[in-house]
Design goal:
Elements (H helix, E strand, L loop, with lengths): L1 E7 L3 E5 L3 H12 L5 E3 L6 E6 L2 E2 L5 E3 L10 E2 L1
Antiparallel strand pairs: 1-2, 1-4, 2-7, 3-6, 4-5
């Protein structure tokens, strides 16, 4: 499952996490979905960032993506 797609001027990077749904549900049960947010930013060379094919806006709050003790294979 491609969790994040980052389109850069020179490449496209895909971040995966096969167990993301299980991790999300466990953490959501512990702290609540409203608390699972983060703010993402990137350099001007990045053309677009999508989470599950939905665009992320630079500097705006979005659902958290990265958690401790999770594997995130990255493909370029």
């Amino acid at each position: 499952m491609d969790l994040l797609t980052i389109q850069h001027e020179d490449f496209t990077m895909y971040v995966e996490c096969t167990k993301f749904d299980a991790i999300w549900n466990k953490v959501k049960g512990n702290v609540g979905e409203d608390n699972l947010v983060s703010t993402y930013t990137w350099s001007d060379s990045v053309l677009a960032v999508k989470r599950n094919d939905l665009p992320l806006m630079k500097g705006e709050k979005a659902q958290a993506v990265f958690f401790d003790n999770a594997e995130y294979p990255i493909w370029v």
